[in-house]
Structures are given as structure tokens and as C-alpha cells.
Amino acid sequence: MDFDALWAELAPIGRYAGTGGYRRFSWTVADAECRAWFTERATGLGLDVRADRNGNLWAWWGDPAAGDAVATGSHLDSVPDGGAFDGPLGVVTALAAVGRLRESGARPRRPVAVVAFVEEEGARFGVPCLGSRLLTGAIGPEWSGGLRDADGVSWAEAYAAAGGEPEAMGADPELLGRLGTFVELHVEQGRGLVERGAAVGVASSIWPHGRWRMDFSGAADHAGTTRLADRRDPMLPFASTVLAAREEAAIAGAVATVGKVFVEPNGTNAIPSAVHAWLDARAPDEAALEATVAGVLGAARRYAAKERVEFAESRESYTGEVEFETGLRDRLSLLLGGAPILGTGAGHDAGVLSAHVPTAMLFVRNPTGISHSPAEHAETADRHAGVAALTRVLEELACA
Ligand code: GLV
Ligand code: MN
Ligand code: MN
């Protein structure tokens, strides 16, 4: 099957008609359908599909035990009401590229694998790139097993309910040791390629980034009868902290976002008892990131104290600055006719893998730059340019 046919098959899975966005959260029905689709299509291509001990799916062409494999792929999960491209473009392009190579009679001298990583977005359990972090040992099974979704279901419980073995989770040096190169193709989440007039680019780096949980606890009371002076309203320091995040980010040349909030008990006519919120912060370097986060959390503590509200914070994930290997990056850029080289503020499994395996990323042009939104897009001609580029890369790395 060619790219368009594969893309059309995957498109309806997990799509929420109310917004047109995707809700493909790990270990849900939509996720199971995506995984079943991947398994069926990869098997149909003649690949040998196996889930690793952390639930990531690997489709092998050639014997994995031979080692020095060339792996490519991305993820199938989404953010709430995400676009169609973030993740799936890399997986579908990988299947299409491998299909093309097999049809052309290519005979790889290195094993080739197509991978679909689990929980890349961290939308359900909070930690992004969880599948690749578990694989590399960047996060331990004890910690990941304790991660819980909004309903209190743990990662281990959800994984077990989906047929996984939580006892087997953890670093997998054997599998990691079999990988010689990893290349992730991804829709660009900015307008760098539009500005450069190119359909495909090569990644240079990923900004350091992380997530911090902030809990403001006050006292629930009546909205009509409680005097302002008597209130311990957690919404007030929370609101001031959101504004502080914007200010601190602007000062440091960073970005900071509060996109997820739970209010308890969430009643119109009650002062909230608690506000739970998440700060996502990213910056061009680690010092700027540290300054931004210190500024925001410091402001949160001060505003909370002023309102007699309790405040607790915890860092839920952190990824330091990623510089992709320059030799591989330049080689791929040259191979693709001088494809532009550009950085990104978005996180990727490739960033996690890059600490262990020579890793590169290809970006496909996004006409608006919009991502993590139903409006995310790549033109058909650019999707095809991505397939051609990845096919060329796999041919060069695995077959030449
Ligand atoms: C993943 O897409 C991220 O950058 O949050
Ligand atoms: Mn994403
Ligand atoms: Mn992604």
C-alpha cells in the first residue's frame, strides 16, 4: 500500500467529531485500534512485529540480533484534540518508505525497524516520551508504574489491562544495543521550512524543556456569603502565577505555558478548595529555562502566601538540551540535496534516543506551523516528499 492509502486508513481512528481533533491516549480503545492497524499493515509488508518490554511496537525487516539496525518511526498517541500529523506522519511515512524499498527489491545489509513509541505526548500519564525513556532507562519502572491518569488509573494497571506485563517494564539494553541509527521523521511544528522554501529539513537541536505540577490548596466556601477578607481562594495565586509565567518567559527569551488545570470542586457558586495546574517551560538553553522556572515558582509561592493558600510543586519531567550528531545531520542534509538544518522547541523520542544511539530527525513542511491542534497540516505533495526523503535515507544508511 502506498502512503495515501495507509494515511486514509489511519485517519478515522481516534478522531473526535466534535472538534475534528484526535484523542489517541495510551492504552485506550483508540490506541489499541492504532496498534492493531500498525501490526496488521507492518505484517502485511512482510515485517516481523514485536512489542518490546515497555509496549513500544517494533516491525523488523531482517534479523534484529544481527545488530547495527537502522530504526525509523515515531508515535501514534496524541495530545487532547491533537492534529493528524504529530507522530503518525513519521510512522506512516516509515511504513511507506520500507514498502517502497521492499518493492524495489532492495536488500538491506543492516536490519531495518519501524517503531511506534508509546505515550510520547504524556497526555494520559503526564510524562512525555515515556516509552523511549523506559527503554533507555531514563525513567525507572518503579516511577512509571506509579504514574496515574486523571481517574487514578496507574500506568502499570492500564498497561496490564491492555495485555502488557508491568513486571517486565524497564531499561532494555539488549534492544538498545541492537540499534545502530535512529531517524525520526516528523511534521514541523513551526514555520522554519516555509521561510526557507523547502519541503523537507533536518533537525539540529531540541530546546531543553520540562513540566512542573503546581498545587494550590485553599478553603472551599460560599461564593455569596464569604467576605473577601475571609477567603483563602487558590484561584487568585493561580491566576497571578499564569501571568508571571508569561512575564518570566518574555524576560528570559523562553516560552512558558499553563495549558492543563483542574479546579476542585469546580462549582460556579463555590470558592474552590484547590487548583492543580501544570507549567510547561522551554528555552534555548538550560540557564534560561532554569531562570524562567525559578521565577514562576517563586512568584507562585509569594502569591500563595499572600492569600494564605498552601502551595506545592513537583517536577514531572525534564529533558536537557539535545544536539543531534552533526556528522549524521550533515550527511542527511547533503543526501537530500542540501536540505535546510533547523532546531525546534518540540520534544521527541529522537531526543531521548540521541543520548544512546546516533540519531537524526527529518522535518516535513507545515504551511501554518500550527501543531497540537486539529488545524495541524502538511500538504499532500510535502507528505510525498517526506516519503521520498526517508526512502533515500534508509537506502543510503541500510542498503548502500
Ligand atoms: C511534544 O510534542 C512536546 O513537545 O510536548
Ligand atoms: Mn506532540
Ligand atoms: Mn510528536
Model description:
The structure is a single chain. The protein is α+β, with helices and mostly antiparallel strands and 400 residues long. The chain folds into two domains: 3-207 and 321-399, 3-Layer(aba) Sandwich (Aminopeptidase), CATH 3.40.630; 209-319, Alpha-Beta Plaits. It has helices at residues 3-10, 29-44, 88-103, 130-136, 141-146, 155-161, 173-177, 192-196, 235-252, 286-306, 326-335, 349-353, 380-399; strands at 15-16, 21-22, 48-51, 57-61, 69-75, 112-117, 179-187, 200-206, 209-217, 221-222, 255-264, 270-271, 274-282, 310-319, 322-323, 341-344, 359-364. Strands 3, 4, 5, 6, 7, 8, 15, 16 and 17 form a nine-stranded mixed beta sheet that branches. A four-stranded antiparallel beta sheet has the order 11-13-9-14, covered by helices on one side. Strands 1-2 form a two-stranded antiparallel ribbon. Strand 1 and strand 2 form a beta hairpin. Helix 9 (235-252) packs antiparallel against helix 10 (286-306). It is globular and about 80 Å long. The two termini are 24 Å apart. The model has no long low-confidence stretch (mean pLDDT 97). Bound molecules: glyoxylic acid and manganese (II) ion (2 copies). The site of one manganese (II) ion has 4 residues, from loops.
Which features does this protein show?
4-stranded antiparallel β-sheet, binds manganese (II) ion, 2 domains, Aminopeptidase, binds glyoxylic acid, globular, 400 residues, 9-stranded mixed β-sheet, Alpha-Beta Plaits, 17 strands, alpha+beta
